[in-house]
Structures are given as C-alpha cells and as structure tokens.
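Shift notes (night). Ran Laccase while the centrifuge was going.
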Amino acid sequence: MARSWSLLLLPFALALVASVAQAAVVEYTFNVGNLSISQLCQQEMIITAVNGQLPGPTIVATEGDTVVVHMVNESPYNMTIHWHGIFQRGTPWADGPAMVTQCPVRPGGNYTYRFNVTGQEGTLWWHSHFSFLRATVYGALIIKPRGGAKAYPFPVPDEEVVVILGEWWKRNVYDLQQEALHTGIPAAHADAYTINGKPGGFYDNCSAPNQTHKFELKQNKTYMLRIINAALNTPLFFKVANHSFNVVAADACYTKPYKTDVVVISPGQTVDALLVPDAGVAAAVGGRYYMAVIPYNSAVNAINASVLYSLTNGTAIVEYAGGPATSPPMLPEMPEYNDTATAHRFLSNMTALVPNRVPLAVDTHMFVTVSMGDTFCGPEQTMECNKNRTIFASSMNNASFILPNTTSMLEAMYKGSIDGIYTRDFPDTPPIVFDYTADASEQNATLKHTFKSTKVKTLKYNSTVQMVLQNTRLVSKESHPMHLHGFNFFVLAQGFGNYNETTDPAKFNLVDPQERNTVAVPTGGWAVIRFIADNPGVWFMHCHFDAHLEFGLGMVFEVQNGPTPETSLPPPPSDLPQC
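Came back to this:
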C-alpha cells in the first residue's frame, strides 16, 4: 500500500521539482544618478534617473522568479525604490516607501532589494518613493506567465509594447517638493505630459524629432500595449487615432475583454490592452497616427482647471511600415478635460476574468473619508507661514499622516518598540458624520481643519477588511487614486454622492468585481474595497497624487503575525539602510 501511494505521488513530486527548477533569479543593477537631458527645446538640465535612462530600465521576470535589484545611490538625494503592486510576501523589507518599511539609502549608499513574483503576472512598475523623485525615477516591471505567451487567457499578441505615461517639469522636482513643504502650498502642475519619456511636438513650438517617441508597427500584426501611468499628479485620457482597444488586464489582474476607444488611467494604475486598428487602418499601408494623452480634470470647485493641470496634449507617433515617414499623423478626437462620465464608465465597468473569489464574511468594517483641508503651520513651514496661519493639508478620517523621522515603522513593529514612531489608533469612522459631498458652506471652515499624526490600523492576520472610501467637498471634490501596498483588493462598487450603508450594498458585485491595487475614487463619490490581510507587516495606503501625499493623504495598516514562522514578519536583511 505504501509503495503504491509513493508511485501515485511521484508524478506530482516531479512536477513540483520541475516547477522549482524553472524558477530563475533575475538580477539587475540600478545606478541612480544624474542625467543631463533637454526637453521642450530648452537648455539641458540635470535630473535624477536610473542607468542614465528616462524612463528607467524595464524589469522582465517570469511568474515564480526571484528578482534581485542592486540599487546604488550615486545621486545627491536620499533614495528608495518601491515595486508598485508586488505583494512582497515574506519580503516586506523590500517594499520601499521611505520611513514606512525602510530608512532611505543615503547618497553614496546602496541596498539590494530581493523579492519573489509568485502568484502574479502582468504589468506592474517601479518608482522612487522619496520626495517627488519618482517624476523621473520610474520604469516598467513585467511578469510573464510561467507557461509563456501561449498561457495568456486572450489571443496571443505578436508583440508587446510598453507605454509609460509621465509628467515633466522645467524645474528640479526635489526643489519643487521642498518649496511645497516649506510654504505649505501645493506644487505647481507639470509643464508637459510625456509618453516613454518624451513630450511630443505640441509644446512651446518645439517640434524637434527627438522630442517625440515613435512606435514602429507592422501591418496585420497584433500588439498588446502595457500602459502605465507614472505621472506624479495627473489622471489621463489615452487614445490612438483610428484605433480602439480590447482591455484584457488592469493592475496585473486579468479582466474579461473590455472594448473601448479610450483608456482612462490614474497615477499608479496599469492597463493591458490589445490595439485594434479601424477597418481603414487594417487595409492601408504605411499609415501614421498620433497616440495622445490629456489630463482628466475631475476637480469640482471654484479653481480654474488650468491651475491644477496643464491643459495640453502629450503625444507619440504610431507608424506602420511601408509608408512615407513624412506624411502628417492623424490626431485622435479627445474627450473634454472634465468628462467624468467617460472616466467613470471606463473605471467602473471592468470585471474580473475569474469569478467567485471574493471573501463573503467581513471581520473589519471601515468608513474612511478622503479629504483636503487645512492644518496649523508646523516647524517645517519656514516660508510665508507663522503659527497664526494655516496651511494646506490632506487627511483620511481627519488624520493627516506624517512619516516618522528616526526609525522606519516596519523596524519599530519588528522590534516591538513603537513609542514615538506610531500609534495604533487610526479610526474606523470619521470623527463627525456630515454631508460629505455637499457644496461648500460655513460649516466646512470648521470641518476641514485636521491634525497631523502617524496613526495605523492594526489588523489580525487573515482577517477580511471592507473599506468604504468616501470623497468629500470640504475644499474640492476630486477623484483620488488610492493605492494599497502589499495587497490587491476587490472593488465591489463605486458611485457618486454620499455612500448609503442601507441601500448601496445592494450594488455590490460579489461575483466578478475588478481586482486592483489602486482605485480611482469617483469625484464627489465613493468606492468600496475588500481584501484579506494575510501579509504580515506595515503597509502604506495613500493617494497616488504626490502633491496630496506630501500633505498627509495616507495611512498605514499594521498586519499582525500569523501562527507559523512562514506567516510571521521575517528579520531584516543585513544591509538594511539605517537612519
């Protein structure tokens, strides 16, 4: 009997060994340093970049691989790298947000990030998580299926193309962040939008060929675009003239095919889409078409849109082989900048490819306001501010988050010494119930005032959390892209106005909701997310507008250890940077 069981198990054991043998160690070196670059036909300026590239190098791995990145900081600034969307199971010390999971790497220092990509495949990305440096320190992170392209749950594309959307300032972005910190006034909007690091030819009468990225395609080939919004502060409408898209994944989670002529993508999000040429394009030879992005201005307030966003087009050229390279490309017809209906339709209509994965029993319910307001000046506000004046602030449940400055939160958790680093009292509900999305009133002047703190919400291992994210109108209604480190979550429902706990649960999709790591909460509305806290550590949740994160729009989940060594916080690596 024992021998027969061993014979039956032998194929499974061999398959397991084969699977482990296939997993590889994918190794990169990131030299972070100065890069001299000219954009918008301006004089060259110095930016911070990885390996002298903008965007930085693309990491390519296969599901199950171990990724090792040796980061060498040759820049004049502190530096960390966040691997956006990677779960970091068993490797929380590699997550990257400064003072949350690690102290930053100082100039001249180095740190090796080591993590696995088990159970994930699709398009993710990496970026700096210190100051505003992610404006130029970013790149793609592609995880291929273990079975190769034939394992895709959609028609296999002939080629895959990375499309990274970004922003460009004519100023040093670190100086921009410091100015915002010291004045308490949000930084000015970007001067241009970029596609694969280039702004295109519609800015400042600058049409030099080296300002526009070109995608060279072949007729009758299928292309999958891996689209990443690496912009610091701007949601974007994305189109290609005379083409449509068949969306097949978002945030490295497969979706049911979703056909659209426009992609709406907030900072931090990714979309995989098959590029579908119109009938005339498919039949023609050598056509040239503009790929374009414009900002989605979701803000509802008295502020002129041009104050918040550069109301301009970033462009690239899609060029099919066989035609003259001098023929003028066609421009796509773009939505209006404030086309919330189009944005909401795209962001709320996608569904998961694999159904019936949502946990139905909830252990922790949270109702969290996502707000902008004001607070008292602090010691950092040394310019245009004094103790009798308030400054701009952002908050969640009226708690405006500040980072500790002596020890990272993860190290404090590991050592069991959190005093002076953080407190375990982030509230499950806002301190006052009010009409969250009503037009501005005298009441708002009191309600919008917030206080600085470093509060976390402590969760039991393997508990299920449901969070209602409620936008407010205290200063401005606006769509906030809320990103959760360490987890994906299910987006059960989204809507406008105030969430109604009696009637809105009937709108929950508990069968095949989209799975994300970053949700764009509708402007003047709400989103409901649910996830399982099965990853011990401290995990940042924050708005992916860096202008809002800078002023406190974030909080942290502290997930307790599980019952086994494998489900407990591991010790830090020997080269973990010290503060």
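Confidence is low (pLDDT under 50) at residues 1-21. The first strand starts at residue 25 and ends at 37.
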